[in-house]
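Data availability (excerpt). The following record was deposited with the supplementary files.
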Amino acid sequence: MVGVLIVVLLAVSAPAAGGVKPPRRPFVATNGLFARAKLGAYCVTYERDGRGVGVCTAAAAPDQPPKPRIRVEPGDRFTMLFRHRQGLHDRPTRLHASLGRIEDGNLETLSAHVKAHRVRGHPRKWRARAPSEAPQANVLELFETFPAGDASYFVGLRQA
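Predicted structure:
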């Protein structure tokens, strides 16, 4: 029965699920430039009329770095601002960031983990520093976990 439920959740579209909407895309800033991240795969749950409603979508990684692209060099600080969607418990509890390179439509992870931390006093603002692999990277991958689900995002990068 559990397997059937998962299939049903994957097949339900947002309008059929009572207007369930995806998480809002975060802003990522560095060196005075910012970009809104491209939404990848996500799963969210809402409560509607006392009943839980959930939607999951699968999305492939982009085949080219999303635009606009922000400039990045080793040691640069990234600031990520996660925005709130009304009715969704979406305050990030964990964030995994990594640098990758998209070439010929294939995504290769260069830095499997970029340490990110929440900014004290700002529950939706996170920061990280670009590692030494930054010059080879052309995409920042983000995966956030929040009480109502999780989501992945992509931000295009360019060298100085």
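Summary of structural features: The mean pLDDT is 85.
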